[in-house]
Design goal:
Helix 3 crosses helix 5. The chain contains 6 helices and 5 strands; from the N terminus they run H-E-H-H-E-H-H-E-E-E-H.
């Protein structure tokens, strides 16, 4: 919206009256939103715990999950793909996933379409990709199902 055009229109409306009237007009414009590249917020406390308590291969898997997470922290990936992408052995990947689950960094759900697969979500206390309203909604949802899932490293 052009400020000069708005000012001209207001001036015309006010001066169309037969008797002069006193008018105060405030025009507020919202700043333009800057388009950002896809990003994920990693919370400092969780990052510290991961850096100090997880082994190196588990951290590699976590960083890969951070890079590949979709909106609202969804990750749909299988063990074979993780093995190929990260050049890790199957036992290393399985143990890394188990470590991430045990420490509540990842939340694992059964895939709704394929019972042989699992879907993963990064715990919203660890990191978040999305807006703050959906994060709070997800946290409340987890609290009603199993509040212990929100405890990172049992803390």
């Amino acid at each position: 919206m052009n400020k000069e055009k708005v000012a001209r229109e207001v001036y015309n409306v006010v001066h169309d009256y037969e008797q002069p009237i006193e008018t105060t007009v405030m025009i507020r414009t919202a700043p333009k939103r800057i388009s950002l590249p896809p990003s994920l917020i990693v919370f400092q406390a969780a990052a510290y715990l991961c850096a100090t308590k997880l082994n190196a291969s588990t951290n590699r898997i976590l960083m890969f999950f951070f890079a590949k997470s979709a909106y609202e922290n969804y990750i749909g990936i299988d063990i074979k793909t993780l093995m190929e992408e990260l050049n890790l052995s199957k036992p290393t990947v399985v143990n890394g996933l188990k470590e991430l689950e045990t420490n509540n960094i990842l939340i694992k759900y059964q895939n709704v379409h394929d019972n042989r697969r699992h879907d993963y979500f990064i715990n919203p206390i660890t990191a978040w990709k999305g807006n703050s309203f959906t994060r709070e909604k997800r946290i409340k949802e987890i609290k009603t199902k199993d509040p212990s899932q929100l405890d990172l490293f049992g803390e």
